[in-house]
Amino acid sequence: MENGNLAPNETMQVHEMLNLKTVCMTTSKMMEGVVFDQELKGLLEKDVQQSITAIKDLQNLLEKAPKLR
User: Fold this and answer.
1) Which residues of 32-60 are buried (b: 16+ CB within 10 A; e: fewer)?
2) What domain of life is recorded for the organism (predicted)?
3) I want to staple 6 with a disulfide (CB 3.0 to 4.6 A). Which of 10, 29, 38, 46 is the partner?
4) What is the pLDDT of residue 7?
5) Whether the Cβ atoms of residue 35 and residue 44 lie closer than 8 Å to each other
6) Residue 28 CB: number of other CB atoms within 10 A?
7) Nearest residue to 10 (alpha-carbon basis) of 67, 51, 66
8) CA-atom Rg of the chain in angstroms
9) Which of 1, 19, 3 has the alpha carbon at shortest distance from 58?
10) What does 1-45 look like in DSSP terms, one character per residue?
């Protein structure tokens, strides 16, 4: 990433992290609806908010990926 762009393998790895974080966030969001313990619900909400931030960061990082022509 010397020139500010991601290499193809880095782009693939960022995509994999983005996919994982999206699945984790979706799972936590769905679990919020079936959990009755308020402490656990609070942890799930915190996880969702942190995941949203991480997803935005990964999406910003993908803007540095080389564009296919």
Assistant:
1) beeeeeeeeeeebeebbeebeebbeebee
2) Bacteria
3) 10
4) 85
5) yes
6) 19
7) 66
8) 16
9) 19
10) -TTSS--HHHHHHHHHHHHHHHHHHHHHHHHHTT---HHHHHHHH
- How far is the C-alpha of 18 from the C-alpha of 24, rounded, in Å? 10
Q: Is the entire prediction scored with pTM above 0.85? A: no
For residue 69, the model assigns a pLDDT of 61
pLDDT at 1 over 60: no
Q: What is the pLDDT of residues 4-59, one digit of tens each?
A: 688 888 889 999 999 999 999 999 999 999 999 999 999 999 999 999 999 999 99
Q: Any idea where the domains of the chain sit in the sequence?
A: 8-62
CB 27: neighbour CB atoms within 10 A?
14
